[in-house]
Automatic annotation (TrEMBL):
Gene field: chmD_2
InterPro entries with a match to the protein in the record: Epimerase_deHydtase (IPR001509), NAD(P)-bd_dom_sf (IPR036291)
Chain ranges passing through the membrane: none
Record GO terms (molecular function): oxidoreductase activity
Domain NAD-dependent epimerase/dehydratase stretches: 6-249
Statement: the UniProt record of this protein carries the keyword rRNA processing: no
Organism from which the protein derives: Emticicia aquatica
Protein name (record): dTDP-4-oxo-6-deoxy-D-allose reductase
Pfam families: Epimerase
Length: 323
């Protein structure tokens, strides 16, 4: 029996590395491509190409050989400290847009039948996320568009790009809007880490009886989805007859201060929280999972605490190794 072939763009990253492994367990032959290897060795790809997908020839080479499915996760991105300061806007928009333009065009020309695009909840309008207790992130609330970051605007443009290729050129696309995906074997320091990894690192580095710093007043809310649930949603979407866009996220909303308290509780340490000025994005964001439940007969169910216990254990080990 011939193995199905999948290309994972962005395989050197956190979600991409885990996705390669998931596809391997399902019996796929997988090629990964990224500008870097996965730094935590979380990549079992049959073949891995070091390539910059902002160049058309790199994208063309990546899709050569014939693929049943392409997963496009390559992007210039990071946590709030990278996305919301405004200092990286040009690079984020330029690099991510080129990755999408090049990969999608190359895939369509090479005869790929199905391509997945990882969008983000950052594309939702800021005006629907001003109340931390009642954010509105249903898929049909995307317009009138007003993302709070250039990262979100690029994601919204690229969603439309993929859907236009489906309408005009016949390639089947699947679009998911990720809501704060987290777990082990991802960036946990250096400025591009997301909130769960940053929180785990701060707690792991703190001495018992000490203090950790949290950006903003800590009343801003978010939901966070464990990586295994994210991959389950992606695979269910790819196997369905629904194109999206669809949210893939948790509905377990929590304030950032309470999120910090959860990390502290898991660590067993006695720590206090100091709120300081810093980039924080919208006031409230939470996944709305009605559409995914309707279209895919599934919604994520793993608790935030369960995922954070696994993530803290891994990051704490990294901190200890790097002391």
């Amino acid at each position: 029996m011939t193995k199905k072939r999948a290309l994972v763009c962005g395989a050197g990253g956190f979600i991409g590395g885990h996705l390669v492994n998931r596809l391997q367990t399902e019996g796929y032959w997988v090629r990964g491509v990224d500008v870097k290897q996965n730094e935590y060795g979380n990549d079992k790809a049959d073949e891995f190409l070091i390539a910059d997908l902002t160049y058309p020839d790199a994208a063309k080479n990546a899709v050569e050989g014939g693929f049943d499915e392409v997963y496009q996760l390559a992007a210039d991105m990071g946590g709030a400290g990278y996305i919301f300061t405004g200092e990286n806007d040009a690079a984020v928009m330029h690099n991510s847009a080129l990755c999408n333009l090049n990969v999608l065009h190359a895939a369509q020309l090479s005869g790929v039948k199905k391509i997945f695009y990882s969008s983000s909840a950052c594309m939702y309008p800021e005006y629907n996320q001003l109340d931390p207790n009642n954010p509105k992130c249903a898929e049909d609330s995307a317009y009138p568009a007003a993302p709070d970051s250039e990262y979100g605007w690029e994601k919204l443009f690229s969603e439309r790009l993929y859907l236009a290729y489906q309408r005009n050129l016949g390639i089947e696309v699947k679009v998911a809007r990720f809501h704060n995906i987290f777990g082990p074997k991802g960036t946990w320091r250096g400025g591009k880490e997301k909130a769960p990894a940053a929180m785990c690192r701060k707690v792991a580095e703190a001495e018992d009886g000490g203090t950790i710093e949290v950006w903003g007043d800590g009343q801003q809310t978010r939901s966070f989805l464990y990586i295994d649930e994210c991959l389950e949603g992606v695979r269910r979407l790819m196997e369905s007859d629904f194109s999206g866009p669809v949210n893939i996220g948790s509905e377990e909303m929590i304030s950032i201060n309470d999120f910090a308290k959860l990390a502290i509780e898991i660590s067993g340490k006695n720590l206090s929280i100091k709120n300081i000025p810093g980039p924080q994005g919208v006031r409230g964001r939470n996944s709305d999972n009605e559409l995914i439940a309707t279209k895919l007969s599934w919604r994520p169910s793993k608790s935030l605490k369960e995922g954070m216990e696994k993530t803290y254990s891994w990051i704490s080990a990294q901190v200890n190794q790097n002391k």
